[in-house]
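User: I'm preparing a small set of examples for a lab meeting where we compare how different chains pack in three dimensions. I only have the primary sequence for this one, and I'd like the structure in token form so I can line it up with the others. Please keep the answer compact; I'll paste it straight into my notes.
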Amino acid sequence: MPPLFPWQRLDDIVHQWIYDTVSNDLLNTILNPDDSAMDTWEWLERLFRGNQSARSLQYDTQLSNIKLEQFTGVKEYCTRIKTLADNLRNVGSSITDDQMVLRLLRGLGDDPNYKPLRTSIQHMKPLLDFETVRTMLELEEISNTDDNPPPRKLRS
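Assistant: Understood. Below is the structure token output for the 156-residue chain.
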């Protein structure tokens, strides 16, 4: 076997890196031994960027319809909002921190546990950042739980 040129060795290293980082399903789709690492990378880019608009619409719809009641608590709810916002940014759509906060507040609905806090936050100028609101809601959730402990069983 003839020795590899330095660029061929680097190409093999980049190929290995790509193959090690993509899922097996995707690997089976992109695997072509005749392609250079650059060919593989461009194929991946076309695959992911080719449906940016559809992905953006999907994430935006999910973000618009998210509600606290769909989750077991504030932490999971806020984490999902952050994930969807990150996904939007990853497909080239912009979403501001203010938009994230407003969507978070809207998803609280008329839950009496959060209504006073929601009303207070939405009227602040400037609006608080997402991480601050997340922390406030988590603390409010803890406070609400402490104020309403589960009923104790009576001994017979």
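A couple of notes for your slides: The mean pLDDT is 86. The CA atoms of residues 97 and 130 lie 6 Å apart.

User: Perfect, thanks.
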